[in-house]
Every structure is written in C-alpha cells, then in structure tokens.
Amino acid sequence: MLAIRPLAEPERLDVLVLPVRPIDPAAGGDASAELVPAAVTPPDGTTEEAAALVPAARLSGRAGEITTQLRPGLSPGRLVLLGVGDGGESSWRAAGAVLARSAVDETHITIALPAEVPPAVIRGLTEGLLLASYRFRLTDADGPPALGSVDLLVADPAAHEDTIATARTTAAMTRFARDLTNTPSSVKTPQWFADQVTTAAADLPGLRLTVRGPAELAAEGFGGILAVGGGSASGPRLLEMEWHPADARTHVVLIGKGITFDTGGISIKPVPAMKLMRKDMAGAAAVVAATLGAAALRLPVRVTTLTPLAENMVSGSAFRPGDVIRHYGGTTSETTNSDAEGRLVLADALTYAVRQLRPDLIVDLATLTGANAVALGKRTAALYSENDDLAADVLAAVEAAGEAAWRMPLHSDYVEYLGSEIADLYSAPTQGAGSVTAALYLREFTGDLRDRWLHLDMSAPSWADGDQAELSRGATGWGVRSLLRWLAAVD
Ligand code: BES
Ligand code: MN
Ligand code: ZN
C-alpha cells in the first residue's frame, strides 16, 4: 500500500501539489479560485507561478479539478494544482482519489497542505489516496506503474500521525474486504474465507475465532446454512469472531451474508444475473474487515461477528424449491425459490445472536436483493430498523464515511406475503418491494431484540462498474468505513 508520511520540510520535489479553492462570489472581484495558503512555504517562485496559473487555466477550485504544469529542468519538475472545493473531508477524499489516479506514472509526490489542517482533511485525503490506488489483479505480469509514496507538507508532522494511522487502517481493511470480494469463487470456498480471516486476525492480539463446519452446524441445528450449502462440494461454515476489550460497555453483533457463489440453486439464475455472483459474500467481507479494524484501532466496544458461509450450487444434494427448512432455534421456512438463499443463512445467524449472545445491538449487512438497486440505484444501500436512534446513528456514520444509505420502511402490510400454509414462513414472496419483504422476513428472527436490530441491504453499492472517486472498478468494500465510524462512536 502507498506510503504516506507527514513532513515539515520537503525531501524530494519531483511533483509538488498545491491546493486550489473556489472564491466565494459574495467576496466580489473577478477571480473564481485561489491557491490555498500552504503551511510550509513552497520553493522560491512556485507560489507565484501557480497563482498566475489559476486564472490562466480558468480554474474553479471544485473538488477533484486537476491541472499539471510541466517545468523541464527545474525543481519541482511538475506543479499540480488540485481543486479541494469547500475544504471538507469529502472534498479532500475526492481530491485525493483524483490525485492517486492522475499520478499513476509518478512514483512520488509532495502535497503542500493548508496552514489550518483539521484531522478531517488528513483523513479524507489519506482515504482518497489509498482507496483510489487499489487494484485487484491475479496475474504474473507487471501492473501499470503505481504511485509509491506521498509526502504531506504540514507545520507539525507529529500532530497528524494518529489521524494518518486511523485512515490507513480504515483503508487497509476496506482493501481487505475488496480483495475477498473480488477473488474468484473457484478459490473462495467457505473454508478459504475462514482461513483468510484467521490469518489476518493472527496479527491482531485479542481476537477470538471459532469456525463451525457441517458436523457442528448439524449438531446445533443450523438448518438454513446446511440447506443452502448442501449442494456444494465445498461445505458451509459459520465463522464467529469476537473482539472483547476490557473497557467495553456495549456489545454489538455484526452479521454478514457470506454466499461465496450464488447460482440461484435449482431456481437457477440466467447468465447476466449470475455473472457477478462471486460478490455475494460482500456483507461477510465488510463485517469481518470492520471487526479486524476495531481490533487494530483498539476501539472500546465489544464486537461479535457472525458470517454464515455457503455456496449456493445446483447439484443432486442441493435443496429444492418447496423444501421446508428448520432453522437454528426451530422456526421453519418454505423455500419456493432457492435463489432467496441469503435470508435463509442469515435467519440462523440472527436467532443464534438473539438466543446465545444477547447483545445490545445487532447490525447485518447483506447483498440480499436485486430490488435494492431497483429502488435506490447502484450506489445506495437500503437501511431498515425500527429503532430511530440506531438508524440515525448508522446513517450519520455512513454519511461521514462518504458512503450512502437510505432508510426504507418495514411495512407491516406486507407481512402477510410471508405466510406459508405448511411452514412458519414463506421465504420468497413474489409480490413487489423485494428489498422490503426480505427485511421483513429477517425481522421474524430478531425475537425480543427486534428494536435492537438494523439491516443493510447493500447488494447495489457492493460493486462499482468503473472507477468512480475513491472506488476502483469491482468490489467497493461498502460498509467497512461506515461500520468503523459507527463502532468508534457507539457507547
Ligand atoms: N444475491 C442475490 C441478490 C443480488 C442480486 C445481489 C443482484 C447483487 C446483485 C440474492 O440471493 C437473490 O438472488 N435475491 C433474489 C430474491 C428473490 C428470489 C426473492 C432477487 O433479488 O431476485
Ligand atoms: Mn440468490
Ligand atoms: Zn444471494
């Protein structure tokens, strides 16, 4: 990962980046943008040269606007003017992302930060740089040249070390979630996923892990996970991971859908819908990455994370449409569509959390329905909770992290669609509002912790079709940044 360090004196000046901001039109005058005064005076002449470029290049200063001036034979050899908009965290995140992409043929850059540099600026910039420079590649060939190091010129480097470390951990965990999600399903068996998390956790003191295989799952009655995983040559697992610091006051359970590939099962998906179903464990990837992050940052909150892991395949041992499944705890589901598999594994995990773990709060993340994108488009998760405070706290964390979610209704009128003649519940209502009815189904498994539960259907924002700001094409790691913000604020 790209090295980022704060410095009070420039060491190498290959490329010098100077921030530019819009001028408030109310201030009068003709200019629409100006250089942001730097904390550390740039080399002789560069400020004047850059100041003249701002009007000449008709810069507006909007976040992510970028202009490069070549200076052959001089030092620095390039001056880069970077728009930082309103100077807030999200503007700096966007600016950092653009910079990371535009500087890929440079190995080293120096950014002259403003004199007043709050932690949010450092955090946004660092996350933007580290997240946008992410690439997933499985090849022996050399990749394109990548930016290797960034120096941040600031007045007091020591004051920013902690902020940079937090942003680095957040970005590293987001990149870990992206790696897990991008990995092809031929590699990514349920056991492989558990192994990756076990290896990552070994570097972090204080994490406890348990992996249940088919025999343990059968002995304890995890019928949803066993049914969904029954058609695969790579059997299901339930990963349980706990971060339990001595100073914790709140116990949070995180649950993530971990379908390592979703063919739809016997109710098989058509080709276009199946194409990206290796990402159907993005919820599991996000919750394990956030938990590793909580341990790395030593957040004072107890977190128990459950990821039911299974591959939804088509085979002679696959569960069938119309089968009745007995979940952990005894509730039964009629499964008329084997493609509604995520909720079946989540149901087991939710009941286990409610009955055995008795947490204060439960949050689940799942690539649960295609209807998420129908309702909210490609970038926004659907959030469900009956607890207004919990919903507000999570929405605030999502916003601060630069991700997006929208609260959706748990319409009681639609509960009737969950009625089955032969089982307690019907898992796949065919009426509309697919994301809402999936959430209502999950709610049935929250028992007496119903108002302590929050569900995020993040199937849409778990993937980016192309590079966009800090997201690189492919898995986005959606939720890692939001969960870490929320966990840091929970009390
Ligand atoms: N994994 C899919 C949901 C999904 C779709 C995620 C597109 C990401 C992109 C899920 O298991 C599924 O197949 N859901 C069905 C539910 C239906 C059968 C009730 C769906 O959304 O069509
Ligand atoms: Mn499915
Ligand atoms: Zn699925």
Tags for this entry?
491 residues, alpha/beta, Leucine Aminopeptidase, subunit E, domain 1, Aminopeptidase, 2 domains, 9-stranded mixed β-sheet, 7-stranded mixed β-sheet, 33% helix, 21% strand, binds ligand BES, binds manganese (II) ion, binds zinc ion
Question: Could you write a compact summary of the structure shown?
Answer:
The chain has 14 helices and 21 strands. The protein is an alpha/beta fold. The protein folds into 2 domains: 152 residues, 3-Layer(aba) Sandwich (Leucine Aminopeptidase, subunit E, domain 1); 321 residues, 3-Layer(aba) Sandwich (Aminopeptidase).
Describe what you observe in this structure.
The chain has 491 residues and is of the alpha/beta class. The protein has 2 domains: 3-154, 3-Layer(aba) Sandwich (Leucine Aminopeptidase, subunit E, domain 1); 169-489, Zn peptidases (Aminopeptidase). The chain has 14 helices and 21 strands. It has helices spanning 46-56, 89-102, 119-132, 161-182, 190-202, 214-220, 223-229, 271-274, 282-296, 342-357, 371-376, 388-401, 434-443, 480-489, and strands spanning 3-7, 15-22, 33-35, 66-70, 78-83, 108-112, 149-153, 207-212, 237-243, 251-256, 258-262, 302-312, 323-326, 332-335, 361-366, 381-385, 405-407, 425-426, 453-457, 463-464, 474-475. Strands 8, 9, 10, 11, 12, 15, 16, 17 and 19 form a 9-stranded mixed beta sheet that branches. Strands 1, 2, 3, 4, 5, 6 and 7 form a 7-stranded mixed beta sheet that branches. Helix 2 (89-102) runs parallel beside helix 3 (119-132), helix 9 crosses helix 14 (480-489) and helix 12 (388-401) crosses helix 14 (480-489). The mean pLDDT is 96. Residues 262, 280, 337, 339-342, 367-371, 428, 434, 459 line the site of ligand BES.
